[in-house]
Each structure stands twice: as structure tokens, then as C-alpha cells.
Design brief:
- Chains A, B, C, D: Belongs to the aldolase class II family. AraD/FucA subfamily.
- Chains A, B, C, D: Residues 3-182 form the Class II aldolase/adducin N-terminal domain.
- Chains A, B, C, D: It catalyses: L-ribulose 5-phosphate = D-xylulose 5-phosphate.
- Four copies of one chain form a homotetramer.
- The two termini of chain A are 22 Å apart.
- In chain A, strands 4-3-2-1-5-8-7-6 form an eight-stranded mixed sheet, with helices on both faces.
- In chain A, helix 1 (2-14) packs parallel to helix 6, helix 3 (94-102) crosses helix 6 and helix 4 runs antiparallel to helix 6 (164-186).
- Chain A is an alpha+beta fold.
- In chain A, a hairpin with a 4-residue loop joins strand 3 (53-56) and strand 4.
- Chain A has helices spanning 2-14, 72-81, 94-102, 111-117, 133-142, 164-186, 195-212; strands at residues 24-28, 34-37, 53-56, 61-63, 87-91, 123-124, 149-152, 156-161.
Chain lengths: 215, 215, 215, 215
Amino acid sequence: MRQIVADLHAELVRYNLVVWTAGNVSGRIPGEDLFVIKPSGVSYDELTPENMVVCDLDGNLVEGEHAPSSDTAAHAYVYRNMPEVGGVVHTHSTYASAWAARGEAIPCVLTAMADEFGGEIPIGPFALIGDDSIGQGIVETLKGHRSKAVLMQNHGVFSIGKDAKSAVKAAVMCEDVARTVHVARQLGEPLPIPQDDIDRLYDRYQNVYGQRSPR
Amino acid sequence: MRQIVADLHAELVRYNLVVWTAGNVSGRIPGEDLFVIKPSGVSYDELTPENMVVCDLDGNLVEGEHAPSSDTAAHAYVYRNMPEVGGVVHTHSTYASAWAARGEAIPCVLTAMADEFGGEIPIGPFALIGDDSIGQGIVETLKGHRSKAVLMQNHGVFSIGKDAKSAVKAAVMCEDVARTVHVARQLGEPLPIPQDDIDRLYDRYQNVYGQRSPR
Amino acid sequence: MRQIVADLHAELVRYNLVVWTAGNVSGRIPGEDLFVIKPSGVSYDELTPENMVVCDLDGNLVEGEHAPSSDTAAHAYVYRNMPEVGGVVHTHSTYASAWAARGEAIPCVLTAMADEFGGEIPIGPFALIGDDSIGQGIVETLKGHRSKAVLMQNHGVFSIGKDAKSAVKAAVMCEDVARTVHVARQLGEPLPIPQDDIDRLYDRYQNVYGQRSPR
Amino acid sequence: MRQIVADLHAELVRYNLVVWTAGNVSGRIPGEDLFVIKPSGVSYDELTPENMVVCDLDGNLVEGEHAPSSDTAAHAYVYRNMPEVGGVVHTHSTYASAWAARGEAIPCVLTAMADEFGGEIPIGPFALIGDDSIGQGIVETLKGHRSKAVLMQNHGVFSIGKDAKSAVKAAVMCEDVARTVHVARQLGEPLPIPQDDIDRLYDRYQNVYGQRSPR
């Protein structure tokens, strides 16, 4: 799990979702009330399985020589309150954060967005770091929502998934559709996709797909 | 052909036309009713000649250990109905998909666009995955049209060519002109190119060029 | 220090803050009235500890075979007048320079901006190269301001820090927030963050953070 | 000279000025009525000193196994009519080509632009490939103009320099300022730089600079 989480940070770098040390990936350890997360203040080039840290579901450091990411409390809150979640990702990726700065959800005007998110990507509340506010905002917004990503107002993106890789995929796709819909909107209004077509696309992608092999 | 198709996916990555596993290249096997296509759910880093899959013109898997790309039915429909086509590419590249989200054709305001596409890049219909709708939309739009690329509404790009490399070139050029024309339009109206100049440029590029060497 | 300053230029390249030879990093030599800076006219690929140059606080060359960066006078003025500064960075990074071309400060509408800059990133005066005008403009704008970066009108960015790495981080974050706020503003007005929340975020980031480990 | 010209194409790729095989660099052979240019239809990865081609000032192939670039006539016309020019570069770089598509010169609102171009980057006429029209348009626009780059309407950029490297630098800087001024204009009007300040900056950069070392 340390290896998986360390390696997945390279995807954040590859897709330009992060600068300096500003984003992080975590993954729940199957069968235990623990998760692996990025250490604070270590650059992406220097991440190794060894310097990843392990925390319990209250965000306390259980194993590791570095302090855990400053966003650990938000990750922990999600794991505590959404048992189906196996991975969490946080980034300040440019286009998604721009929608977040306006407090505007991304409308579902692309089939790839219907596939992955099943509709719009919603806005979560403005929340300060330091207590459970961010975690609560994430959970309240995503519980019962199809979307695996939430745009936290004036802040950035949190994405979730059944495992860490799935959460990273959601973070990558979120920035990709945030950018494409932004660009589309710059020169006019994108055409809406009818709700029942969104439903069909989402259903097919989650089910037909799942029965064969991951895309 | 497996080697060629596997290698061409690297061009999609190099020109930032794809994220995660969302685009695909296929190439018709000369002299046979078969084509080689990307396997589903395999990342671009892991593509090898060996894990490419071979399908017949109905999209059925003929050879390979992975399921074929989820867009295989659309590729197959094109090969079945456009015998002159030897390669097909599909991407969700950002700028082209943004035009597609608005359902707006890209006007021909660049000489490079006249050279490669001979005029505007047209919009194809909104079509759901799962049957021949996407393939039909591609073929109906591109049959008898100079353009080697079509913007499928709310979806992305399909491009065609005499072989896989030519279809990849069209996909690369489509995103390049989609971006440049978008940027031009952000601050005003691009100047039109007279139709007979477009015709001269296209004719020269397709013919004079062809008699010497590929550009 | 030569090694550190030489290596930090690679971060300017990595984050696309510079083209050709247009940006530079310097670092004060602890305990001495000297600083290390990029040589003029040497490309980023060719920077080594050996070809870095050492200047005194009047910007005179003290050690090195190349002429110092043409921006040396501005760096020297900052070191002379802000003893707490241990590193200075100058770039023409795209989005920050675009705000500078309009003479417009970047409003603080992102929590990452409150963390790093404690408020808006201010505009400095239009100043010509050749005397102390640029240095004076930087110091007058940043003295007593929380921001570690200033947008020099019609020119580009100067950033400062307690050491060269911290100044590079400020240059990287400045371009990142300049881009995100620009993108946000393209489609409407970003939501403001209340001043006391900005204060809380800044205080926490500078203090709580500092007591544990650098982020 | 073959080595220099071959290597300089890597700068076009590094700064994202070209896609596929669409841009080219040439360099005059000192003391001879000959120049080295990119072969047609060879990808940037495959350029070597050996496959560069040599042409005379009428654009005829003198040495080489490949056909010369399809833009050779324009390069040759420039060398024939501007004896002070030692290098020519052509690209379809995105932002510069967007200004060209609108037929709009780039106003000089950045000090880096005053340094390198001494004022606006002008628009050249719409001209078709196939005779001397493009070359004439370049020469008529740039003769007696400070700018080393011209935006050929609906087409792209041609830049010149005392040698090939200097022309490549102009192409890189042209795209950089085209992008920054575009971004600035998206959210309002950039502040003008007074003409006499532009003159001072240009004079200093061309003269003071030249007496020390190239930047």
C-alpha cells in the first residue's frame, strides 16, 4: 500500500495537477482502521514507500518518521464516515480550482463526464483547515451523490474512490473536464445532455464496464 | 501493424491529446477484413505490440488476451463503410472537445487548416455508445467531406486517414487548429480565408505534396 | 550556495516560469555581504555551481568568469535594503506578467493564496532597468507587506524569501495562483474570502506550520 | 552549420512551438550563397546533421537526399533580399498564429517585448504558398522595422536573426509575448509603455547588452 500510494503521486505530477508539495493521495489499508498518506513537506521527487506515513482514522500518526500531510484530518474524516471509500486525493488543480473560486458546479456537458461522474461535479462549502470542517463539507456533499469529486469553495478538489487509484483517476478526470467545459464556455454555452442520456451513460460505464475490465 | 499501432499511441500522449486511458488508435490490416486496436483499460505506458488486440469488421475480438477498446464498435463501423480508410483515431482532446460541447464546427481561418482539412472541421451528431450510432454519425459526416476529422457533439474527436499514422496526424492537427482558432476567437473575429484560396491550398497540399514526399 | 542556486533554476524550468534565459535566482551567502546569482546569457541547461557568479551588495562582480545577470542591480538593492531576505527570484512567468501588464493586483480568492501570500499579490511601479528604480519599486512595495511577490508593472515578477528556495517557492506559487484566479475571472467573479479568514489561514500557515516542518 | 540547424529544431519542440513536422529553421552558410534547412517530412526526433539539406538562394536543392522544407522558397527570398539576415525560422505557434488569424499586431506592453522587438510585432499580408508571395510579404514587413518577427495573416510566424540561433530566440520570444499579451487582454486593456521608454529599453538591450555578452 505504501508503494501504491507513493507511486500514485507521480500521476498527479504527470497530469500537472500539483505544484511544489500542494497535493496528496491516501489509501485505506484493507481490513484495518488505518490509511497511508503523503508526508508533509516532502517533494514529489523524493517520495518513496519508506517515507509514506500511516495514520489511524482520527488522523493520528501511527507509523512514519515525517509528519503526515496537513490535509490528513480531512482524509481521516472521509474514511471514518464513508466506509465504502478506499482512496482520497486532494489537489489545487487549476481549472477545477477556478470553478471552486467562483463557487460554481461544473455542468455535465461531456459524455466522459456522464461516464465518470454521472452528472455535475458539485460545490462544497467554504471551510477552514484546522478542524473537521473540510472533512464534513466533503462528506455532506458527496454522500448520496454520484460524483466522486467535490470542488471545495475557494480551495480545490477532493476526490474519492473505491481505492487510491480510482480516486486519482477521478482527480485526473475532474481537472480534464473542468478544463474542457471551461474552454467550451469561453465562447458560448455548451449544449446540455438530456438527463436520461446522462443516466444511461453512467449506468453503462459503471456496470457494463465493471463486468468486463476496468477501462 | 501491432507495433505501428502500439507506437502511435505515444504520439497521443506526446501531444497531450489524452488523459488516463481515454483515447485510442486503430489500423486496418492490409488485404484482410481485420484491424488492430488498443486493448481496453491498459495505460499508455504499458502498451506493447503483444497486448494490442485484433478485431474483425463487426468489432468481434479475433486475437488478443484483453478486451478491445470500448470504442471498437465505432472504429469497426468506419472500416466497414469507408473502404478507403486505413486508420481511425479517437480522443477527447481539450479544445476540439470544447467546440464539440458547443456543437460548433471549427471555421477554416488558418492556412494549415486549409492544407490538412480543406475547410471547416464539421460537427457530427450526439450519439450514445452501445450500438452503431457513433459509427453512423462519423461516416455520415465524413463521407464526401474533405475533413479527416469530425467533432462528435458533447463527446470528442474521431479522425481517419489512409493509414493509422495519417489518422494520428489528423487528430494532432485537429487539436492544434481547434486551440489556435479558439484563442483567436477569444479576442475578436478571425479573418476569413476566401473559399478559392482554401481550395488552392488544399489541392496543392494533397497533390503537389503527395507527388514529392510526405510533409 | 553555488550548488543550491544553480539547482534551483531547474525549478523555474520545471514549472514553465521561464523561456530562453529570461529568469534568475539568487541567494545571500549567510554571514557575508555577498550573494550568488545566475550568470548572464547562459542557458538553464548549462548552469553549474562553477559558472554561478558572486556579487557584493552593490551588485559588483566579486567572483566568477561570466558577467552577472542583467537583473543583478535589482537583486542587490533588495539584499541591501531588506536584511531579512535571503533569496530573490525574477521571472516573466505568463499569468503573473499578464496581471502586471494590466497593472492589476491579484485578489486573494484562494485559500492557498491566503496561506502563502496572506492577501493580494500587489503591483509595483513601472520602472526602467539601468539604475536602482526596479530595486526601489520592489522594496517599497514589499516592505511591510505580507506578500513575498510583487508584480512589476509591464514587466514581470520579483519574489523574495528567507532563503533562495523559499523565494523560488513564492515564484512558483505566484504563477500558480495568477493562473487559477485568471481562469476563474474569465467566466465571472470569484467569491471573496473574508479578511479575518485570510488572516487565520495566513497565521496558521506561517506559525503552526513552521513549528512542525516545512510543508 | 548542419549540426547547429539540426540541434536548434529541438528548441522549437522544447518550447512547444511546433506540432508534427510543421515548423522549420534555416541558417545561412557564412561567406557563401547557400543555406542549410530542415528536410521536408522528417519528424523532429529524426533530424540529424546528415539529413539536413543545403539550398542556394533561389531555393534549389544543392546537397542532401531529402526534398527541402516546403517553406524553402520563403526562406530563400529572405536571404536573397536581406543580406544582414543569417537565420530564418517559421512556426505555427499557437498564440502568435491566433493574432495572425485576426490580422492584429501584438502591441508592445511588456518590457521584454521592448527589449527584443523594439515595439509591436507587425502583421504581414495574406499570401499563398507556391511563389515568392510569402517571402515578399516577410521582407516588405520587416525591412526597416525593428521587429525580428512577423505574423503572416491567417498563417503563422516568420522570424529572422543575425544567425539561426538568434532567429530561434526571436521565435521563442514571439510566442511568449503573444501568449502573455493575449492573457493580459482577456481581462482588460494592458497599460501602454510610453514610446520613449520603449526606445530606451530597445537601445539598451541591443547596445549595452551587445558590448558585454549575449543575454
